[in-house]
Amino acid sequence: MTRIMVVQGRELSTEDIGLIRGLLVDHSQWGRTRLSEELCRRWNWRNAQGRPKDMAARTLLLKLERSGHIRLPPRQRPSSNAFRNRCVPAVAETTEPIGGALRDLRPLRVWVVAPGSEALRLFNGLLARYHDLGHRNTVGENLRYLIRDRRGRPVACALFGSAAWTCADRDAFLGWDRATRERNLQRLTNNTRFLVLPWVVVPHLASHVLGLIAHRIRADWQAKYGHPVHALETFVDRDRFKGTCYQAANWLRLGVTRGRTRNDREHCIRAAVKDVYLYPLVADFRRELCAPACSRTEGRAGRC
Predict the structure, then answer these.
(1) Among the CATH numbers 3.40.630.30, 2.60.40.3390, 3.40.50.80, 3.30.720.10, which is that of 100-301?
(2) Average pLDDT value for residue range 38-63
(3) How is the chain split into domains, by residue range?
(4) In this predicted model, what pLDDT tens digit does every residue of 104-140 receive, in sequence order?
(5) Is this structure's pTM higher than 0.70?
(6) How big is the CA angle at 191 (ends 199 and 105), to the nearest 5 degrees?
(7) What pLDDT, on a 0 to 100 scale, did the predictor assign at position 89?
(8) Using H for helix, E for strand and C for coil, what is the string for the chain?
(9) Residue 135: what pLDDT?
(10) Listed range (61-75, 110-124, 219-233) with the worst mean pLDDT
(11) What CA–CA distance (Å, rounded) separates 94 from 98?
């Protein structure tokens, strides 16, 4: 009987594991990159825009190795993440205080930060220097937003990336079982970083920025990745913050985390308990986030 397991959002059978083991034996000279590229080719594993899901395949191989199913060849060169995780140089940015009323800054302009742009260097530097959690690298699907006021001055940054793999209160609210979550997790995105620059003190600015992003992020995600997202999530450290801006922007508080991290495979890492917030982007978000794979039409109608 063929056993099915789900790794990196993909169903794997015993035959698939056998294929990977066979490639490792037959092509012992291959590196990890060559192996992941071959898997994408054989499985026709592509994203909504038709590009091979090479990074997803590499992560899948690492997870299979960690779980003891395969043994990968040694790395032929340092991980590319080692370069991404280098310290971001401090940004020479004016810190002239910005205050007053929100109307004095409007209209705010929300920019999608393009890869390789000068705006990316500014974005990375601001988060690395001024956000409590810092900023290193971003993997998987993500969007970076830089917000400027009417005079072109940066006032805020927001980063959206991969949703949490599991979250009990969120999953219960959405009606997700494990299979549904694994199938539709990419239709949810996590606001992993949100920063109003420390010299900007303007009432209601943060919630206004969240609202501007919520109005455009589905279209931005569709344009970049070929599929939309149907809801936003975030986690707020309740010992340090009250989540006021999310509440003012009408995000829903669903509950609290269990004090674990995504890397806590042994159930022994204790982390800060955080409030769980979610913002639906469409009225029928539950139906969209629980849809079977066969009902997706994002390439044609822009809906999942």
Answers:
(1) 3.40.630.30
(2) 85
(3) 4-77, 100-301
(4) 999 999 999 998 899 999 999 999 999 988 887 776 8
(5) yes
(6) 35
(7) 53
(8) CCCEEEECCEEEEHHHHHHHHHHHHHCCCCCHHHHHHHHHHHHCCECCCCCECHHHHHHHHHHHHHCCCCCCCCCCCCCHHHHHCCCCCCCCCCCCCECCCHHHCCCCEEEECCCCCHHHHHHHHHHHHHCCCCCCCCCCCCEEEEEECCCCCEEEEEEEEECCCCCHHHHHHHCCCHHHHHHHHHHEEEEEEEEECCCECCCCHHHHHHHHHHHHHHHHHHHHHCCCCCEEEEEEECCCCCCHHHHHCCCEEEEECCCCCCCCCCCCCCCCCEEEEEEECCCCHHHHHCCCHHHCCHHHHCCC
(9) 82
(10) 61-75
(11) 11
- Token reading at 180: 């549904």
Structure tokens at 198: 């420390």
